[in-house]
What we know:
By secondary structure, this protein is an alpha/beta fold.
Amino acid sequence: MRILLVDDDREGRSYLARFLTLDGHAVTECGSAEEALEVYRPGAFEMVLSDIRMGRMSGINLVSAIRSQGGAPQADVVLYTGHLDISLAIAALRAGAFDYLTKPINMAELQAVLQRVEEHLRSLEEQRTPPPGYQGTGDDVPADVRLQMAYLKDLGAERAGQKKFCARSPAMRQVVEQARRYHTDRSLPVLIQGETGVGKEVIAHLIHYGDLEEAGPFVAINCSAITPTLFESELFGYEPGAFTGGSARGQKGKLDAAQGGTLFLDELAEIPVELQAKLLRVLEEKSFYRVGGLKKIDADVRIIAATNLDIEERIRQGLFRVDLYYRLNVCRIVIPPLRERKEDILPMALMYLIDFSRSRGRRFTGISDEAAEVLLSYHWPGNCRELRCRRGPRRDRKPTRTGA
C-alpha cells in the first residue's frame, strides 16, 4: 500500500517507516499534520497513519481536514497515541478514522490493522455500486460500537495466535485464504501438512477462530507425547472403575472438553494403529463412548489434524489406515517451508526482534542490511520456529540501538 506516515517524533517515525517498508509498503514521511495536508491528495495514498498529539494541529484535526476535501478514493486513516483514553479514541473514530492504536505500537497489532485496511479497500473496490434501495453509510455505525469491534478483532487475533504470524508471500496468503474458507463449516475435518515449525497450529487457530464468531473451545492434544495405553482414556475419558489406578469419579476426555469447538490432533501420524479405528468412528458417527462406559455421547466437535510426516508413506508401511486418511483429507492445507516463501522472512524476523527487545528492555527497532542478507541466504531447516529461537554467530562489533 501507499502509506502517508505522520509523526513529529522523528525517531519513532523512522522506526515505523522501516517496518512498513520491510513489509512491502511505499511510505511517505511527514513531520506534522500541516505538512501532511500539503502532500495528501485523494487517490495518492491508500492509508494515512498518524500520531494524534502533534504540535498545533492534532491527528484528529488531520482526519477532519482530509475528510472535508471530498473526492475519491479516500485513504483510510489510522491514528495512534501514547495516551490510553477511550474518549479520545471515540473522538478519533467520529472524526472519520478507520482505527486506533496505542503506543508503544505492537507490530503484530499494526499488521492486523494493515490487513483490515487492505480488506476494506478490496471491499470498496468490489462494491463501488451499492445495492438498490440502500440508504445508509459506514458513518451510521456508532463510534463506540466501531471501537468495540476493533478491540474485539484484536483480542480474537491475539487469542488465535495470529499476532505471531506473517503472511506476506503469495503462498501463505493462499494458505490463510483456505483457512478462512474452511472456518465457515465446522462439520468438515481439516488436515494440515507441513514440515516441523512451519506454523501448523497457528493455521489451526485461524481455522477455528475465523473472524471471531462464536468459536467455542480450542483443545489441542499432542498425539506423539501420549503412550498408547493412555491415549484412549486421554481422548475419550473414562467412567469410574474403568481401570486400576484411575480416578474413583472417572474423568472426562479431550473430546468432552472440545464440545462446541475444535479438537486439534497434533502429530496425527503418531496415533497408534489400534486406536485409529476408534477415531474414524468418531468422525463418521459424530459420537463416542468413554472407556468403560455404555452411554453414547454426541460429539459436537470439529477435528483439525496436523502432521509433518508423509502419511502416504505411512500408509504403505501399514502404520496408518487409508480409510482414516481419506476421511480426514476432506479439506487439506499444505504449508510451504520458510525457505520457499522468502517474502515472509524479514517481516517475521523484525516482529520477533521487536518483541524480544521489549521483553528485555532493549531498543532494537530494525534489521541492518547485513543481517537481512544473512537471514535471506539461510535455508531455515527449522522454519519459523528456528527463526524465532536461533542465535546468530557472535560479532566483534556491537549492534546499534536502531539495528540488529
